[in-house]
Amino acid sequence: MRTVRVRLPGDPAGTSGDELAAGVRAWVQSPPLRALVAHFGGDWPAGGLDAVLAGLDDFSARHWDFRDGRERPDAREPAFDPATAGLVLASADALGLVRAAPPALPRYAHLLVLGGLAHACLRRTEYAAHLVRTGTGVGGEVAVLGSFRPLSPAESRTLDAAGVPGCATEVDVLDAGVRAAFGVDTPHEEAGADPGHPHRAWSSRTYRPPGRPPVRVLAARPANPSGVARTPPTPSGSGPSTYGWAAPTGC
After folding, report:
1. Which pLDDT score, from 0 to 100, does residue 30 have?
2. Is 99 exposed, middle or buried (0-12, 13-18, 19+ CB in 10 A)?
């Protein structure tokens, strides 16, 4: 099955709002996405870009939401026939959702790594180290942002299988990932408050790998009574409230 590749929207800093909107419009209205909607029995939404996006969001919730509010490992596996599975995979590739793309610029002020489930924490910290090793410039620091969200039993089993024991929270995994990927052992600076308090706890650890930018691992202060720094719909912990807490730190 052959599909025409579509450029993902988004350009370097300085791109105008109109140019970004045009890129989003071209991606959304591209033949691969239209074919995917039609294959699942959908009619293309009428109206301008806002109306089309709202219509596609509703269609996606009805036909493609296999998580039902759960984390990715708990999503139900769809039973697609071979033709449908082939179309889904070809469309995802054509829409730029499969192949890794290099950074658009050679240098950035900061590199921000977001937390998530345990396996994602390890992969994201390793990829950040890969970018730094292969020449992506970082003028400030690599900021690794997570929370004190407790790990699930499934995540703990994943870490045991990967040879990363001793982690109890999301930020523990991020810290272990940073130490492994950047080749560091002991933080140069540490700060934090109320480690045992469910609502005020936060932490910051800064590592200084030789010849590399500083790497700071942060655990955001919880933003709700459950003691987990999260804002729906991001149950794994790294949501808008987490970013808002970290913004004043300069990340």
Report:
1. 94
2. exposed
> pLDDT (tens digit, 9 = 90+) per residue, 127-163?
999 999 999 999 999 999 999 999 999 999 999 999 9
C-alpha 222/C-alpha 220 separation (Å) is 6
Q: How many CA atoms lie within 13 A of 249 on its CB side?
A: 26
Split at pLDDT 50, 70, 90, the class of 228 is very low
- What is the reported pLDDT for 236? 46
Tell whether the torsion through CA atoms of 4, 10, 12 and 17 is positive or negative: positive
143, 236 Cβ separation under 8 angstroms: no
The answer to whether 166 touches 182, Cβ cutoff 8 Å, is: no
Task: Report the alpha-carbon distance of residue 182 to residue 202 in Å, rounded.
Answer: 23
**How far, CA to CA in Å, does 180 sit from each of 130, 174, 217?**
12, 10, 13
Question: DSSP characters for 35-98?
Answer: HHHHHTTPPPPPSSHHHHHHHHHHHHHHHT--STTS-GGGSPPP---HHHHHHHHHHHHHTTSS
- The number of angstroms, rounded, from the C-alpha of 103 to the middle of its chain's C-alpha atoms is 15
Instruction: Please report which helix (H) or strand (E) contains residue 113, including its range.
Output: strand 111-114
Instruction: Give the pair of three-digit tokens for residue 110.
Output: 């900061």
Residue 184 pLDDT: 97
Q: What percent of the chain has pLDDT over 70?
A: 81
Token couple for 111? 């590199």
Output phi, psi for 83, to 5 deg.
Answer: -65, -45
